[in-house]
Amino acid sequence: MLWEPSGCCCFTLRTGSLVLASIVIFFGTCSMLTGYLAIYDLDKSFQEVCKNEEDIQDCITTVKRASYGIIGTRFVVDFIQVTFSILLIHGVLKNKTRFLVPYMIMMLVGISILIIMALILMGILIYEGFWRGVFIAAIIFGAIIFLETYFLLVVRALYLQLKRSKGQAHVILTEDSSSEIIKA
């Protein structure tokens, strides 16, 4: 059985979910605007990065493609996060559980990516013999993963609370060893 928090920090589940979604919307929007504004200042940076290379034009083209790819990917991810957070706010305000599901899936995918990134980074640091870095990375990624998991559990608890208030019983599946499988 999975633990269900009764609130988020000092807020109710509803208020905590609204605050979480609002924070994601604020920082996602700021990140999208920063990425959009950064595109106009990149040409000077490309010149600076590639000034010591033999083929400056080839270097600038390569760096420009990589930079635009990273900025574009970040923009798409931020847009998805903002969209799903808006859906979460709508679902909380209208008591519609189906609008909470995309946010929970997004959080689960984000936690999975963080775990994979942490393991890769720690593996590289172990390979390089930088044990202090492994410890620091474990603490930082552990704290972030813990908070993200807690926030996911808060939204899930609200989801289950809304389901129960609608009279839709959430059945917890258990393994019953006394049941037999009937073959047709």
UniProtKB/TrEMBL annotation:
It holds the Pfam family DUF4728. InterPro entries: DUF4728. The chain crosses the membrane at residues 18-39, 75-93, 105-127, 133-159. The keyword Membrane applies. Keywords: Membrane, Transmembrane, Transmembrane helix. Coiled coil: none annotated. The keyword Cell membrane does not apply. This is Uncharacterized protein.
